Structures are given as C-alpha cells and as structure tokens.
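Subject: for your reference before the review

Hello V.,

The reviewers asked for a structural picture of the protein, and I figured it would be easier to keep everything in one thread rather than splitting it across files. Below is the amino acid sequence we used in the manuscript, unchanged from the supplementary table.
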Amino acid sequence: MKIFKSKNKIIYIAEFSLPNMSAYAVHVLKMCDNFSKFNRVELILPYKDNKYNFSQIKKDYNLKNKFEIKGVFNSKNSLNLFDRIVFALKIKSYVKNSLFSMIISRSIIPSLILGCSNIKNILEIHTELTGATKYIFKLKNIKKVIKNLKFIVLNFELVKILGLNNNSTIILEDAVESNDFKINNSKKIIKACAYSGSFAAGKGIEMIYSLAKKSPEIEFHAYGNINTLDKKFKDISIPKNLHFMGFVSYNKVTKILPRYKILLMPYQNKVGVLIKGIDVSKYFSPLKLFEYMASGRPIIASNLKVYRNILKHNYNSILLKQDNITDWTIAIKKIMYKKNYSYLGKNARNNAKNYSWKSRAQKIIKFYEK
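And here is what came back from the structure prediction:
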C-alpha cells in the first residue's frame, strides 16, 4: 500500500463539535487516530472548545497518536443550512491553500463544494438524507462533481437508497479498538444487564423498561446521554431496578462494559437516530455492537438481518425476536443464573478483531488510490 508523502496530510471533515457525547465523535476520532499511523492528519470541525485540549481528548477516547483538530467557528451552535454552507466555503478556501494527500468528509455540503471545485474527496454517509440536504445531494449527479467523489457507506442497502454508483463506492462496517477493552483487568463481574448508547426511539430502552418490570430481581443499568431520553420516561414510574447511569466517556465505557454479566442490544423493527424521521434499521452498523463484542461479555440482541453477518445465534450472541419479552426474560435468567455462557463472549471478542479501525483506515487509503 502506498503511503502518502510526509509533507502532505490527510484532511478529515466532520460536522460535530467538541466536547461531544455521540458515537459519531468516537468514530471520527478513532479514524483520525488510525490514519495518523500512516500520515499527518488534520480534523476540521465546526467548533472545538479551546479548553478541551488534545491531552484530554486523547485520554477520553483512548487515542494512541497525535493529530491536529481545528474549529471553524468561534462559538458552538446548532448548524442550520446557512451555517453549513459557510462551513463548506471556509473549508474550500482553506483546502485550496493546503498541501494534502487525501480528503475524507462526513459532511455532505463541503464534499459537494470541493467536488465542484475539482478537488477530489471521499464522502462517508451513514444515514439516508432528509430536508434540504436531500435535494442538495442531487448535485452529485453533475458530471464535474461526480468525477471528483468517492463514497463510503455502511451497508449495500444505503447504496440503493442514495442512488450511488457501485464502482465509486466502498462498503465498510463500523469498527473497534479491541485492545482498548482490557477484559483480564476487569474487576469482579457485576451481576446485572447493561446497555450503552443512545436512547433514541427504537434503540431499545423501551424494551429494557419492560424487561426490568418483568424481572424485578435483576438490575438493569443504562449508560447514555439522558437528554436523548423520550419525555414519556419523565412522566412514568421507573422500576427501581432500572438505573439511568448518565453519559460516560469512551475511555470509561471500555472499562465498564467488560464488568457486566450481560450486554443488551434490544433494537426494535424501526431504529431511530437523533435526526427525526429516519429509520436506520435496514442499513446501520452500530458502534455499540463492536464495543460489546470487544468487551468479551455475553450479548443478547434483537435478531435483525442488518448485522446477522456478524452476530451468530448461540455462537457469539443470543439473537431473539425484538418484541418477545418472555424469550428475552428467559435468556437473561439462563445466562445470569443457570448455565455457563462465557463462550459467547470469547467468540465475540475473537470476531471483533476482524473489525479494527486500522484495517478500516488502510482499506480507505487503498480505495482512494484506485
């Protein structure tokens, strides 16, 4: 594989600000960290709090290498269409005066504007598009733009939804740094079920609420940003055995998950994200899935086609119908009290090694060079 000239750099564009509580941030920072093994890397964001220095970022996300992070705006705000266009134009101006080897973007408008300016780049997209962005994305079909763009998506279904050309698209699952999860150093196992991630509709918190009511003798711990929790949970009585533990940094997640007896992934038929009106159930590649696998603990998950190529029932997980409370309750109690299901965690951890951030970065560089 060709390694880019050291005087040049990889420019990575993303549309979140730091500090951040999203899996999006984990994905981007881990990708930048692993691109840094091959080249200088510069991450461009809308905003980065100057008080949040790289040393703290490195600690929070278990980063191994150093790279630059720059914020375009002086203050943090919710990006509207105008802000995104300004963000894109500022990036275009900056890029035109930079030496770079590759540009990869998780932000659609900057990617299209760079393409219009005859600047080649890779655009990674994880969801279908809505609102004005959906219509702006049609600019990709302009001959001058499309010749300068390549695409990364998580699943072939998204290729069809976005109308992408197979020859200019690569499909890559999400990934994990298995060595971040030190399972041999974990403290005494907590005899409880854990969930980590977003509380958006369809991610499973509704199911966990029902499971907690059904099994009052079992503890359920849910880690995540409480602000993403549906308002209805503020108006109902929460079972005493269901505990919302709040958001914890990625660094702490790597220490927390390996300590639990069971990890839950009860996705529903429709899986929402923080963007309203989007159902990702047919094409997503949840970061949580790979973190759970790397944790080496038994996973109980909804039996969804989208990740059935990774999770195998009774091999590296227990896969159940997403709305069958009885089956989930039985499975939880079996693993918790009766049989030894440690082989599930061992197999999952071994499988997780096939989905490394380093391998993902190498595949992207090779794809860009074609």
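For the response letter, the relevant points are probably these. The mean pLDDT is 92. The radius of gyration is 21 Å.

Happy to draft the paragraph if you're swamped.

O.
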